[in-house]
Amino acid sequence: MVRVITIMDDVYTELYRLKRQKNMSFSEILRFLLAEREKESRNMMAFAGSLSEDDIDTKAAGNMKKSMHVIERYA
Fold first, then answer.
1. In a designed cystine with 11, which of 6, 7, 17, 69 is the match (CB 3.0 to 4.6 A)?
2. Residues 32 and 24 sit within 8 Å (Cβ to Cβ)
3. Which of 33, 24, 26 lies closest to 4 in space, CA to CA?
């Protein structure tokens, strides 16, 4: 089944660039990008729960939290 979608010009340009670079159809490029996203998600999940409390530098983590609050305030 074929569907028609509307995308912005900049997205089309990037998809077209990938299409030409990988010599694939638009559908193949979209499948490829979705598969890559899924792979990245699985790779990140492999690390879930792998750190112990001893592995965490609590002072550095606290400093990062403070920095994030400052960044969010100005965003």
1. 7
2. yes
3. 26
Neighbours of 29 (CB within 10 A): 19
* Selected residue with higher pLDDT from 75 and 73: 73
Per the model's pLDDT, the better-predicted residue between 47 and 20 turns out to be 20
pLDDT at 75: 56
Residue 49 gets the label, from left (phi > 0), alpha (psi -120 to 50) or beta, of: left
**pLDDT tens string 50-73:** 677 777 777 777 778 877 776 666
Q: How far apart are CA 55 and CA 47, in angstroms?
A: 13
Six-digit token string for 36: 């890559």
Instruction: Report the C-alpha gap between 22 and 30 in whole angstroms.
Output: 12
CA pair distance 69, 2, nearest whole angstrom: 46
